[in-house]
Amino acid sequence: MILNPDLEPYIHNLLPARPPVLMEMEAYAAEHDVPIVGPAVGGLLALMVKISGARRIFELGSAIGYSTYWLADAAGPGAEVHYSDGSAENTARARAWLQRAGLASRITFHTGDALQALAATSGLYDLIFNDVDKEGYPDVLRAVPLRLKPGGLLLTDNTLWSARVLKPEDSSDHGVVAFNRALFAHPDFETTLVPLRDGVTVSRKRSHGVGLRLDGREAQEDGPQAAH
Question: How many C-alpha atoms does 41 have within 13 Å on its Cβ side?
């Protein structure tokens, strides 16, 4: 929590009651020290989905599926949401909870490297949520721009990284710092950082611009592309 710690319970007390499955996931995460975005950020993710009208979503790093719940629920019936996580145990746990919530039919589950899972799919996405291991954040920015449709959103968690961005020491710290600098300077994105919880960056892909292909070379966008 970056802000005055007294503000966190204040914000949480403003939040509406959550469904039982979400509450169970929060309790499990607290008991087993599993990092989740929490209900305040979950609400922000859901709001971004509803404002943007996102229907095709890829989540890079999904853990037990807590953020997946918020994204899939907000996207609505018939949406296409991709879960990805390196742990088969996390995937099984997430699938069970999301089935109980009635959301699993709109979710595709990938176990393994998140960027490899993204590369194995085709077409453009309306929204990509980035929450992979922090040393991998720069790789996300190299891969994601050409997988988002013009006007699509890239949402990234932990971009304040418990204030370790101020004095980076390890590879995770430096990964977040490099990502933040590159994203704010990226010609394809309009970006702002919301200092909620551990920092959430919201980036909108411009309709025109020069992006980086997956091989690192420049690729020119001339106009809108098909969403699928």
Answer: 27
Q: Give tens-digit pLDDT for 157-180.
A: 999 999 999 999 999 999 999 999
Q: How far apart are the C-alpha atoms of 40 and 190, rounded to whole Å?
A: 23
In this structure, the strands spanning 80-85 and 218-221 are unpaired
Record the pTM: 0.89
| Class of the domain covering 7-213 | alpha beta
**117 membership: H or E segment, kind and range:** helix 114-119
Encode pLDDT of 58-100 as tens digits.
Answer: 999 999 999 999 999 999 999 999 999 999 999 999 999 999 9
- Using alpha carbons, list the distances in angstroms from residue 80 to 48, 55, 87: 16, 6, 21
Name the 3-class secondary structure at 141: helix
- C-alpha R_g of the chain: 17
Q: What is the per-residue DSSP string for 36-73?
A: --HHHHHHHHHHHHHHHT--EEEEE--TTSHHHHHHHH
